């Protein structure tokens, strides 16, 4: 029964990669731990332990095995990758694929960019902004201005995020541009209520997912993750707020 | 008529956020559906004169239940459906008013709006967690009931033989 010997090195790399992709795509902490431990148990590694935070993962496969750490510096929201990692883990636990195949698939998932083209994303952000301004009690005459504000805001945040990699800065400038578009719309009589235009325009930037994930992590007992995600959400909200504030101050 | 417009617009909003968060393409219309169910509940209760916090809690609760049902049906993680589903409930407008009041040096109103935004995001998270726990308990009870019923039936069959 030499076939049944567990390849601990590869198992360690595979589990850690799965956890890393999930955290980088914005999964909840308890789901990441659950996935990693489930995969470990299906490989017949019974005493695996993990410690997951949004900035790094520590994984140990037992007393006699090596431990490994991975540090994580950037996090986005990418639900497609979470779903893919989930299906790989599901296939591994039901023994449809082997550990080697799972590892290959995970490497492929990590390298691929599953996002839709940027034009479609900007259009989606614009449409969402326009629709939200009506839902929040705005007027139909303000929809075109909100549409443009949402598109500009999302475009600015995406481009600057790629160029500078400083989240605070790109969100600040995006909010500033949303505010400027709203003021121009008001000046040239293309809009009436500046509040509703700005609220609609910044909604694609608002850290709604971060806030709720933070509270859920806290409730699940992952206090470190909850507090750090809360800090990230607070920073984003502060960036948006100060960007808008600058427009009113001008 | 009002309800129809709100249903369609909340569908558009949530589906578009599904695109921004890069949900799997097949799941995007379902995301839209989950979001519009949540918003319709929020909107209906708000029309009945409930406070925003209560309405948000109930809407988030229902969003999580519907998301869980779809997650089990499509074997996709639940987060795919409920992340975009709660977007219309996120207190963006109130957070904006908070910042605006603080900038205009009206700190009292700023704190008031800030507390409200905090309470509403707490209500969203509470709704999600409560629904998740209740669903877990229900599924466990159902499974146990089924197996114990079956084992009971089997026992009975053996005895009558």
Topology readout:
The complex is a heterodimer of chains A (250) and B (161).
Chain A: H1 8-24, H2 29-42, E1 49-53, E2 56-60, E3 67-71, H3 79-93, H4 99-111, H5 118-135, H6 143-164, H7 167-187, H8 194-202, H9 208-219, H10 223-249
Antiparallel strand pairs in A: 1-2, 2-3
Chain B: H1 2-20, H2 28-47, H3 52-74, H4 79-85, H5 92-103, H6 107-160
Helix pairs in contact in B: 1-2, 1-4, 2-3, 2-4, 3-4, 3-6, 5-6
Task: Walk me through the structure.
The complex is a heterodimer of chains A (250) and B (161). With 250 residues, chain A is mainly α. Chain A has two domains: 2-111, no CATH class; 118-249, no CATH class. Helix content of chain A is 67%, strand content 6%. Chain A is built from ten helices and three strands, in the order ααβββαααααααα. In chain A, α2 (29-42) packs parallel to α3, α3 runs antiparallel to α4 (99-111) and α9 (208-219) runs antiparallel to α10. The radius of gyration of chain A is 22 Å and the shape is elongated. Chain B has one domain (2-136). Chain B is mainly α and 161 residues long. In chain B, α1 packs across α4 (79-85) and α3 (52-74) packs across α6. Helix content of chain B is 84%, strand content 0%. Chain B starts with a helix and ends with a helix. Chains A and B meet through α3, α5, α8, α9 and α10 of A and α1, α4, α5 and α6 of B.
SSE pattern of chain A: HHEEEHHHHHHHH
Number of helices of chain B: 6
The tally of strands of chain A reads 3
Give the integer mean of the pLDDT values of chain B. Answer: 85
- Largest sheet: number of strands, sense, barrel closure of chain B: none
What percentage of residues of chain A falls in helices of 4 or more residues?
55-70%
Order of helices and strands of chain B: HHHHHH
Assign the structural class of chain B, choosing from mainly alpha, mainly beta, alpha/beta, alpha+beta, or little secondary structure.
Answer: mainly alpha
* Most extensive contact: A-B, 51 and 45 residues
Q: What does the average pLDDT of chain A come to? A: 87
| Strand tally of chain B | 0
Radius of gyration of chain B: 21 Å
């Amino acid at each position: 029964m030499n076939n049944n010997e567990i390849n601990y090195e590869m198992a360690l790399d595979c589990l850690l990669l799965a956890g890393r992709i999930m955290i980088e795509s914005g999964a909840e902490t308890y789901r990441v731990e659950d996935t990693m431990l489930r995969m470990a148990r299906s490989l017949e590694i019974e005493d695996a332990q993990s410690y997951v935070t949004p900035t790094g993962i520590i994984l140990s496969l037992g007393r006699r095995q090596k431990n490994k750490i991975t540090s994580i510096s950037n996090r986005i929201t990418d639900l497609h990758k979470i779903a893919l990692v989930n299906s790989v883990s599901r296939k591994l636990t039901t023994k449809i694929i082997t550990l080697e195949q799972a590892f290959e698939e995970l490497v492929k998932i990590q390298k691929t960019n599953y996002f839709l083209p940027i034009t479609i994303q900007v259009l989606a952000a614009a449409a969402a902004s326009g629709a939200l301004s009506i839902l929040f009690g705005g007027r139909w005459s303000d929809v075109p201005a909100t549409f443009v504000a949402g598109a500009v805001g999302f475009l600015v945040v995406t481009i600057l995020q790629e160029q500078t990699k400083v989240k605070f800065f790109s969100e600040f400038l995006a909010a500033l541009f949303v505010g400027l578009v709203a003021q121009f719309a008001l000046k040239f009589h293309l809009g009436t209520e500046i509040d509703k235009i700005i609220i609609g325009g910044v909604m694609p930037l608002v850290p709604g997912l971060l806030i709720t994930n933070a509270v859920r992590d806290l409730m699940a007992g992952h206090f470190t993750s909850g507090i750090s995600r809360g800090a990230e959400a607070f920073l984003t909200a502060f960036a948006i707020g100060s960007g808008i504030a600058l427009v009113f101050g001008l | 008529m009002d309800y129809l417009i709100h249903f369609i617009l909340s569908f558009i909003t949530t589906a578009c956020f599904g695109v921004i968060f890069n949900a799997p393409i097949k799941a995007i219309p379902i995301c839209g559906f989950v979001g519009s169910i949540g918003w319709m509940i929020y909107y209906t209760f708000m029309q009945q004169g409930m406070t925003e916090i209560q309405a948000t809690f109930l809407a988030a609760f229902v969003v999580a239940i519907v998301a869980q049902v779809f997650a089990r049906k499509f074997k996709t993680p639940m987060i795919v459906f409920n992340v975009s589903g709660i977007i219309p409930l996120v207190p963006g407008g109130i957070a904006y008013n908070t910042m605006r009041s603080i900038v205009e040096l009206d700190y009292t109103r700023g704190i008031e709006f800030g507390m409200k935004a905090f309470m509403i995001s707490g209500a969203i998270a509470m709704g999600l967690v409560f629904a998740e726990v209740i669903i877990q308990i229900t599924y466990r009870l159902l499974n146990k009931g089924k197996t114990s019923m079956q084992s009971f039936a089997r026992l009975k069959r053996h005895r009558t033989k």
